Amino acid sequence: MNIKGNSSRGLLGTTLGFFFGFAAVALYGPTAIKFKEAMDLSPAMLGLLIAIPALSGSLLRIPFGAWVDTTGGKKPFFILMLLSLIGLGGVTLLLVTSYPDGMKGMYGLVLFFGFLSGSGIATFSVGIGQTSYWFPRKQQGFALGTFGGLGNLAPGLFSIILPVFLTYYGFISAYFAWFLFLLLGTILYGIIGVNAYYFQYRKAGLSDQEAKAKASQNGQEIFPTGGVKDSLVNSAKIKNTWALVVLYFTTFGGFIALTAWFPTYWSEFQQFAPIKAGLFTAIFSILASLMRVYGGKLADTFGGEKVALLSMFTILSTAAILSFSSNILLSILIVVLLAVGMGIANAAIFKLVPVYVPKAVGGAAGWVGGLGAFGGFALPPIMGAIAGKLGTVGYARGFIVFVILSLVNLAIIYVLINKKRNQPTITN
């Protein structure tokens, strides 16, 4: 029986795939003005166009994450990357053939391709499940932190590279280049990505018990129970799944939201030039992503709940200061601390998914990753509404949203810690 791969290869495949999956959505925000001019879009229509990839990238995480529990992850992951490739390719073709004069009336089609493009972000929940099945519980924090942290580097790196590329090569050329980049990533994942041993044995024809026994001999500790529907239903019945959803809505949804919000904050409130605003946004995004890797190690050592608690205090205090600070140097320092807290919290929270929902990791990853990432779609309009009411100072006051969410999250983490004390059989 030819069993492929190991945990290192499994982690490499999912991390590369997730990193490349972000390629399809990197262009929409920075190039939105081009669509606005060509199609004469209202602010609301433009806002929907920018947000639509984040919408599909969050909602598709739920069913595709659950699908991992029946297939091991490679098939749903690859399908999501193909959908993203179709979306980005469709927009590119539309621009090549119709931009700018032929774009009138194409808004619906651009939205459709944008929705498909967001599929690349949805690979996150699939990768969480696929990675979780590869690693023993004591290494979950490191593995998931590495996957999420390095994969999440994409938005920050793209925010640095993209303005330069647009300046030298132009709008349409950028879409074509990013399409080729995503194509390369899809091919690489198809070659490198591999399912954990249990799913390979099952595919080879072994029974459930035989596959578990063989996979256990190779070091696999976590196994699924039931199909896609079972995984979603079983994980949804566990209250802690929804606690993790709320926590992740603030941390990862907040990460996506702030990556989109900071360019406006730096330029409108702190009066930074666009390139400078983009650079400081990239610093936040990249630092938060890198800290996620370190946060996974901390969660393995000290426990996910404790690390999440300390990180949430950091998010609370930094958001409170940012809400009222107008000092540039202080604000820069506080944003750095916010990135550290948010990155570590993201790793700690997903460390808890296989701990609290070990028999439906894929389903739980779908709920947590999907509804959590929805924060990236929901939070910017709320912060924008605050800015709209208060004027320039509102771009700072908008961080009050994270103060409120952090207070709710601290209460949730406190409950989780107390519950764990009464359930000593749960191990971190």
UniProtKB/TrEMBL annotation:
GO molecular function, one term: nitrate transmembrane transporter activity
Record Pfam families: MFS_1
Transmembrane annotation, as ranges: 12-33, 45-64, 76-99, 105-129, 141-169, 175-199, 242-263, 275-295, 307-324, 330-353, 365-387, 399-417
Coiled-coil region: none
A single Gene Ontology CC term: membrane
Main location: membrane
GO process terms (BP): nitrate assimilation
InterPro entries noted in UniProt: MFS, MFS_dom, MFS_trans_sf, NO3_transporter
Keyword Membrane: yes
Keywords, comma-separated and alphabetical: Membrane, Nitrate assimilation, Transmembrane, Transmembrane helix
Residue ranges constituting the Major facilitator superfamily (MFS) profile domain according to the UniProt record: 10-421
Compartment(s) where it occurs, according to its Swiss-Prot or TrEMBL record: Membrane
Domain of life: Bacteria
Membrane topology field: Multi-pass membrane protein
Family: Belongs to the major facilitator superfamily. Nitrate/nitrite porter (TC 2.A.1.8) family.
Name of the protein described by the UniProt record: MFS transporter
Naturally occurring in which organism (per UniProt): Gaoshiqia sediminis
